[in-house]
Write a structure and sequence with these properties.
alpha+beta; Alpha-Beta Plaits; 6 domains; 6-stranded antiparallel beta sheet; 29 strands; disordered N terminus; magnesium
Length: 843
């Protein structure tokens, strides 16, 4: 990954592909700040393939940082020139990331809550990629370093994806200070953009292959000389040749130690400099001490040399990490975010029908675009012309093409099938469903599960214990056989490195989270996988959860003379015109027939507004009749709820009831099977609905739920939830309306439908990406399997160390064998965890 650039007139750029050395036109203005460029100036940065003139080293450094960070679009869409940077070179190096236009790529408002923070809405979240992470202890070090900054409220780092989420107060700490703090301890920060993610993966792969190649070639060459020394020693090899082989081995082993093993030394040094221990500390000690002792023996022609052990040890360590890295990449655990699924440009349709190619970032709501067969949809929108099958598997996990025609909704990230489509944009950029999913994924990374945090703490303490045991081994063997003391201590250092212990939990959680998303459940909070196996009861909402959530107006029964069915219907549609509750969709065909103002929604009751000079209410009978309390009521027909099936809403004004409006909503086909599968897993189901109609018992009977309650207001739902929790039950709540928000917030695990209100989604721990409720019991089964895998991994890591440590202490494990053992132990843990990414539900 390219680092932000720090360039001056006499210092070459760190990324020469971006900063050029020739002199642009001296009469031009600075491309960054707009100030005149002095005659003879040779400061410039290559942007979009063109050398752009800069007026000073500061502008050159800031512009170079923007380009190196993959944020070139800043210059395409900025509305005015940037300010000229001030201050020293270190400040200039990171100052580009304080520009609001640059931050729009990787900084967003924080939408959650934090203990002890009174105004969390003032906080922001920066999504960064952090190069140089090698283990879970690195994660701990980064989090400790950033949390020491005033204004940083929360830090979460994912060791698998190398992504960091920093919640901070922009009024107290600048983004550049966060970058600088990371750089000060040796890590390489950059904005978490799609381009940077892909670049980091490519550079990680190339660097790993280069180092592995150097270590492999060095090991083979040194082993050839080592064999000659071993066998020659017994036959009386000439001392001159023996010393020659030692010197050649030194020359060959030096690149292995100084280049191939450099990541171990770098990570260990920055950890020690910060006063912390990571697993690369014992590894670096092992390599450095063995190499140093062998160099001493070679120079002074005394003792034994172990260049082959050092090279072989380094090679096996690098091989283990390389295989682990490839496994992570293959399983998608180090992806650069969902945004990379979107194209860079789209075909926009003008008013006259002309087609022009424009950047996706330039698209706006209300415009129209043309989708050709095979095109990836760049925005959310509605089809206005054409018919085609669309692949929405990235959003729903459903591989079958979804047929779209005029009026159908399409979503960013999906792929058009066989025919052209014209789409009117309803949401672009951060407003798309794909962007919402990505934000939820980032939110999940902010929450570190207790199991992973515990493993990190155990690993840190274990490293200190390993160092003390190694010292004890050295002291013991120094008294028994001084010539073996050093190598026994070396083996203890190597064989007990807690790589497997640190990887045991995060690798399993990452693989299971990825698989859950493929199955249709997006995890938005880190504790979900830990909590699911302990859940004993699932509480379902009805409308939009057990039912399709797309009710239709089936009947209108006027209760007052002079009121026609059409009039009652149009008044109800006017009241629901701005409501985002699923029931409002039933009136969508009649929106606009009449106008209403003063609209307000009462959670769990209904809506109120003024239409044609009269105040009306629509919703539960009790809520509607309150409006007429104390007034002279107009005689009406029988106000009892009609006996016909469906959900009945009352429409009334200040003089009493006006009409009954009957709605019908189809049951989700997978609901009965989902409830049955939960029961088979020992999980009870319950239905709590705000609907007061006979639909509630009918739906409960259809899906097989014995416990249900109709007319449950939000406070009633919350009271029921607290009562169940007081009895020792662990409760999962699934719903989709604003009235479900209180109980979603209070549940042990909460799930919102993808079609749910934004507020419901923001309070949920997971999002059901499609209407298949069977994803819930599958999630329970996968969470149980994940818990088993974590226990297996931790058990294996503990067993391995329990067996390997005594053997190494007794001198039965040479250093090269210790390196193989440690690498194999880590690989076993990762491979076992990746089984979860291929998990298939039974039946």
């Amino acid at each position: 990954m390219n680092e932000p650039l720090e360039t001056t007139a006499d210092t070459p750029s760190k990324a020469s592909s971006n900063v050029t050395s020739h002199s642009p036109d001296s009469e031009s203005a600075c491309f960054h700040c707009g100030l005149p460029v002095a005659e003879g100036s040779h400061y410039s940065v290559k942007i979009d393939g063109i050398a752009r003139a800069m007026c000073c080293p500061g502008c050159e450094a800031v512009a170079g940082a923007i380009v190196a960070g993959g944020l070139d679009n800043f210059y395409r869409f900025r509305e005015q020139n940037s300010e000229r940077p001030e201050g020293g070179s270190e400040r200039q190096r990171w100052q580009a990331y304080d520009l609001p236009q640059v931050q729009s790529e990787f900084v967003r408002a924080y939408s959650g809550t934090l203990p002890g923070i009174e105004n969390p809405h003032k906080l922001q979240v920066a999504s960064l990629l952090v190069g140089g992470i090698t283990c879970a202890a690195c994660v701990w070090l980064i989090e400790k370093q950033l949390m020491s900054l005033a204004g940083v409220a929360r830090v979460s780092v994912n060791a698998s994806t190398h992504r960091a989420q920093i919640v901070f107060d922009p009024h107290r700490v600048a983004v550049s200070a966060i970058f600088s703090a990371l750089a000060s301890i040796g890590y390489r920060p950059s904005p978490a953009t799609a381009a940077n993610s892909e670049r980091m993966l490519q550079q990680e792969r190339r660097g790993a292959i280069r180092r592995l190649g150097v270590a492999g070639l060095g090991t083979m060459q040194v082993m050839m000389f080592a064999i000659a020394l071993y066998f020659g020693g017994s036959k009386g090899i000439d001392l001159q040749f023996e010393q020659f082989f030692r010197w050649v081995s030194l020359v060959v082993a030096t690149p292995v130690v100084c280049y191939a093993a450099q990541p171990f030394f770098g990570a260990a040094w920055r950890a020690l400099r910060s006063g912390h221990l990571v697993m690369d500390v014992p590894v670096s000690l092992a390599i450095g001490l063995a190499y140093g002792a062998s160099v001493y023996a070679t120079v002074f022609d005394t003792g034994e040399v172990y260049f082959e052990s050092v090279s072989m040890f380094t090679f096996f360590l690098l091989l283990g990490r390389f295989v682990e890295m490839r496994a992570r990449h293959k399983a998608g655990l180090a992806s650069g975010g969902l945004a990379q699924l979107l194209p860079l440009a789209a075909l926009r349709l003008g008013r006259d029908g002309e087609v022009e190619s424009v950047p996706v970032a330039a698209l706006a709501e209300g415009e129209s675009i043309l989708l050709r067969p095979g095109d990836t949809v760049p925005v959310d929108g509605v089809v206005t012309e054409g018919a085609s099958g669309v692949d929405e598997s990235v959003l729903t996990g459903e591989s079958a093409l979804q047929q779209k025609q005029a009026g159908s909704a399409v979503f960013a990230g999906s792929v058009n099938g066989d025919s052209p489509l014209t789409v009117r944009i309803t949401a672009a950029g951060s407003g798309t469903r794909l962007s919402t999913i990505e934000k939820l994924v980032e939110q999940a990374q902010l929450d570190k599960p207790a199991q992973a945090a515990l493993a990190d703490r155990i690993a840190g303490r274990f490293i200190a214990a390993v160092l003390m045991i190694s010292v004890a081994a050295f002291v013991f063997w120094w008294q028994q056989a001084p010539e073996r003391a050093f190598w026994v201590a070396l083996s203890v250092l190597v064989v007990t490195c807690p790589c497997a212990l640190s990887l045991a939990t995060p690798a399993a959680l990452a693989a299971a989270t990825l698989r859950l998303q493929q199955l249709g459940l997006l995890v938005a909070r880190g504790h979900v996988l830990e909590a699911l196996p302990r859940v004993t009861r699932v509480i379902f909402d009805k409308t939009g959860t057990l039912t399709e959530g797309a009710p239709q107006l089936r009947a209108v029964h006027p209760l007052r003379t002079g009121i026609s069915e059409e009039a009652a219907r149009d008044i109800a549609a006017a009241l629901e015109a701005r409501n985002n509750h699923p029931l409002a969709r039933a009136f969508r065909p009649w929106f606009g027939n009449r106008a209403a103002d003063g609209l307000r929604s009462v959670t769990g009751c209904g809506v109120e507004g003024r239409c044609d000079g009269q105040v009306y209410r629509l919703g539960a009978p009790g809520f509607v009749l309150e409006l007429a309390a104390g007034a002279t009521a107009i005689p009406v027909a029988d106000p009892k709820v009609p006996s016909a099936q469906g959900q009945w809403l009352m429409l009334g004004d200040q003089r009493g009831p006006v009409a009954w409006l009957g709605l019908g909503d189809a049951l989700r086909p997978t609901a009965p099977d989902a409830v049955a599968m939960l029961a088979a897993q020992g999980v009870n189901s319950e239905l709590l609905s705000g609907d007061q109609s006979a639909e509630v018992p009918r739906v409960a009977e259809c899906v097989g739920i014995a416990e249900y309650r109709a007319g449950a207001a939000p406070e009633h739902k919350l009271r029921r939830l607290k009562a169940l929790q007081g009895e020792g039950e662990r409760v999962l709540m699934i719903g989709d309306g604003i009235n479900d928000v209180p109980v979603l917030s209070g549940a042990d695990v909460s799930v919102a439908m993808m079609s749910a209100a934004d507020l419901a989604q923001s309070r949920a721990d997971a999002i059901l990406l499609q209407g298949d409720l069977q994803a819930l019991p599958r999630a329970f089964a996968l969470a149980g399997k994940c818990r088993t895998i974590i226990r297996q991994n931790l058990g294996w890591a503990i067993l391995y160390n329990a067996l390997a440590l005594p053997l190494a202490f007794l001198g039965l494990v040479p250093p090269w064998a210790a390196a193989i053992g440690m690498s194999l132990s880590s690989l076993i843990v990762v491979i076992n965890a990746l089984r979860l990414s291929r998990w298939q539900p039974l039946g």
